[in-house]
Amino acid sequence: MDFWQHCGYHLLDRAPDGRLLVTDDYLRLYFARPELAPVAESCAAERRLHASLLESPRRDIADSEIDALADPDARENYRVMLRFRGQLLAAPTLEAFYSGLFRSDVAVPPPFIHHTVEVILRGLLEGCGSGLLARAAEVFFRQQRVSIHEGAVMLADAETVNLHAESGGLGNLGRMLREVNAPLRSMDLDVLDEANHAGYFTRDERRDTALQINPGLPGSLALCDLLARWVGHFHGVAVRVAPIREIPDEDWVWHVGLDVEASAMLNEIYAGEDVDEERMRRVIGLFRMDFEDPGSLQPEMRGAPVFLGMAMTPEGSLRLKPQNLLMNLPLARRA
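and the corresponding structure tokens:
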């Protein structure tokens, strides 16, 4: 199954170990972004610079070429993009670029980071026929809107939800109807399960499917699978991840929050601080990670599990931070 065709995965090469290599065509994808594409008001120098980078996306750019651009926003956009290009090309693989981001202080625009996660996951899922796995992977790089109804915990794409709330799913017509206070149709997202998941691949870039993540259900198990694949790909260690309903005190020696909210909450609970019931209700996922080879962990952790947590914000959103699994696991050595 092919999916996420616009992410640029097919523009990359693969190293012998399966990791992703940046190509000129992949760089062109970035130089063609709207932030850099010339507009009617663009000066001649900007048009020349843009055309030259599409032709030779690795060529050196002198500071004078940036300074010659008339539009200050264009100058800043090019400086940001060229810094990003420099980091990409300095790393041996796309995975090395991504993991290196969190060991340095060089700022990269968040959309570029999320896009990098998407492309890496697309490579991880090459040949995948499970729409559940592909939809679960979206949680790693796209903000989710959480809804809880009669105990069912659902994740929907936040951007899709926001666009629908603005226009009722009817685009400009919907916005016009809203202006005259006409009723808009309610949003109806298909919840993926084992029976209908193949339909994901006919609508993957519409981002209009939902995932139910209650423990033990297919959406939760798919998320566990992705977490295990992510850790295995970056660290070269085999792990098993399973959903749980609570963390047993006697086994709790290490945890990793998968987002800002969960990180803060787990740290406070582990330190013996009181967390009020309202905050606790925002926990939407707990997982247990076990390592196939105990020797892959620090000596004091061998044989112990690592617990993972996810929690939504007070506004009901979830932004996963998959980099936490690169930086915060108690491994004996890092890949």
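(Above: one complete record from the training split.) The two ends are 30 Å apart (CA to CA).
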